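Please, structure for the following, as tokens.
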Amino acid sequence: MNDRVLRLLYVLTFLLATSCQWEQMNPKIDCSTSPVVIATLEVQASQCDSPVGSFAVAASGGEPPYTFTSAGKTNVDGIFANMEAGSYIVVATDANDCSDELSVSIENTGGVNLTEVITNNAGCGTTDGSIRVNATGGMEPYSYQIDNGEVQIGNTFEGLGLGTYSVAVIDQNGCESAQSVEINSGVSYEASIKSIIENNCAISGCHNGSVSPNFTSFSTIQSRASSIKTKTGNKSMPKGSSLSQQQIDLISCWVNDGALNN
């Protein structure tokens, strides 16, 4: 065996021995240093018999240019026209893939409008979520619908899992107002995720500051949440796949909720 092969074997042995090196992630831009900020410029009401509503938004901060996304539409000017009544989430994303979002509500002129949406978390891996909607205006009694399903008289939808749902209220004139609603798991970082990371990742000789990234910092954990979900899910992190399936599922649910500091 020649010296070149021996050196190669030595390097491979060293890398395998320092397992945390295999868990290091590529550097990522810290969006908090120059955050994107989105703001509403103008909102035009819609009508029950015609989707003539519109709104305009603008972004600042971050790294231009920006793209704007809402209701499955994407543009670069922040103007969304021919919109029906309802509430819309608008996301502004900059050149570094940093983003900010806000909710814009378009009302029905003289018709029914959603006034309040109340949600309950689904839990992780369960279907305990619920949505209750309240409305005003138009002609009562109202009927309600979720995801274009059967129309019902009650204003509550139960037995919902994680996901995004479209809920609508319809009055006796057929006037409708809809809103996209997200049901989260409700997994808490403080109660469930923090101890998993502290006991398995942010440990001596690994991601406790001696190896990058430093998982003793919540901001670092939050910015790396998507990668943490992927690597724990495929059991490449932590090295040796020491997490239980329940712990892996909790991490996934927490990340899907938005990696909140809750």
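The longest helix spans residues 3-17. The longest strand covers residues 37-44.
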